[in-house]
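HUMAN: Spend a minute on the protein record below and explain its fold to me.
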Amino acid sequence: MCGILAVLGCLDNSQAKRARIVELSRRLRHRGPDWSGLHCYQDCYLAHQRLAIIDPASGDQPLYNEDKSVAVTVNGEIYNHQDLRAKLKSHEFRTGSDCEVIAHLYEEYGEDFVDMLDGMFSFVLLDTRDKSFIAARDAIGITPLYMGWGLDGSIWFASEMKALSDDCERFISFPPGYIYSSKQAGQLRRWYNPPWYSESIASTPYDPSVLRDAFEKSVVKRLMTDVPFGVLLSGGLDSSLVAAVASRYLAKSEAARSWGSQLHTFCIGLKGSPDLRAAREVADYLGTRHHEFHFTVQEGLDAIEEVIYHIETYDVTTIRASTPMFLMSRKIKSLGVKMVISGEGSDEIFGGYLYFHKAPNKEEFHLETCRKIKALHLYDCLRANKSTSAWGVEARVPFLDKHFINVAMDIDPDWKMVKPEIGRMEKWILRNAFDVEEKPYLPKHILYRQKEQFSDGVGYSWIDGLKDHANQHVSDAMLANASFVYPENTPMSKEAYYYRGIFEKFFPKSAARSTVPGGPSVACSTAKALEWDEAWSKNPDPSGRAALGIHAAAYDAAEPVLQINNGNMLPEKLQDGIAHATTAAVV
């Protein structure tokens, strides 16, 4: 994982402009501490901060075609680069970098090559022969990319908002699965068009062996590395399956020749947390070399400002989960590990969040999974990428493999529905696919462990501590006036108000706050899914424990619940005509 910055058509090729590009690129150095690169052509600049994962010795960027007329700066990994090189036998490669194929594919196929890439990526390519350029982002948005416009007519692209927010008048989160071409009148067009994207209801019968095979192949291809790596293991279903498959196939991989056949696994939590216990049990079962890290609530609170600066959001759920992941990534990097494999994406594909228990029918279930996958780049992908990249660690996510998503989303959604009467819990089809008697992947009680959101699993007192901390910093009057202070995406709780203030300190422009989604949520639902249960609209907390009647440690339904009025979380009781919060902001 690297950091890229591209500035094109800025009408300035002075030394001062070059120095400014270098300065802004340094804001991304945490993403790529191994080397810095800059390509300048007239008033176009491609900058790169490298985290060397593949070919550390010679894969510095930007990368070029044979005569250097085409230059590209890339953030990501191309897992099928060897196969693509075989199709480009007439081309001369300078490095062993997986990303070099992009320059040569462009030469060979023009702009229509992006769908040939199997991996996670964001890139900007400059063709100096006609001074045209393209930018593209991977199908789901695993890697971050922002696009901005300067007053001088320049167009900017950057891995993180902080590299362009000061110099652009307006900027957006570049949509995943899209390509921008200067030759096409500056239009964004979608290159990723799988069948599920249209949200039509799938009808393929469930075959556990097909699903299992697709996931195993997805994990195996992500073992491609020239540096030490491991798996993030929370002890939940998704991370445990990643670890089980990686452990099973590691000995046969190229990585094992350099780094050994014993898989390293990593977990973090408050002492005594659910995740720590479950992760240790899975690690012992799989025989991994397990690394268990602890943090305190105070250590997490002390990191909040730095976390928000790095992840560039004020979304409550994302910040709750990013903080322990941010702390864990620092520990992982201290061990010399530069790449980790993680379990993000499964809950969106299979309807694993507990609120899916209330899906009224398979059509609504499927539509919600489609909405969740399309929004991943704003939530879990953003968290996983930026929390780890803050310390120069790359996170790979096998559940978000293009082929695996197509297989999983092509299954008739009736098979994904939660049906307790016939023994089907959330993500039953995934659990069942790996529930084999011969050479079992996991112990059954782990395979059938209830969904636990990462921010809950690290220890329930973590979220409780965040709420208490926010209550100490945000007064009742501040929350009552939230709609006037923050009319866009008005904070609905004291916790949300607290995060918003920190975010605005780092990113004060209106364009920045518009990159963050809003709306009520329960247990990570979309706003639309709140319609499934009237009670949930009265308890819109993103924690899994807000799934009243479903989570084993759900909040007490008898506790007072704050209502939504004019976009703010306010109590029903009014004093002197002014709203004063009388209970915790989110209960």
Summary: Residues 192 and 467 are 40 Å apart (CA to CA). The two ends are 38 Å apart (CA to CA). The mean pLDDT is 90.
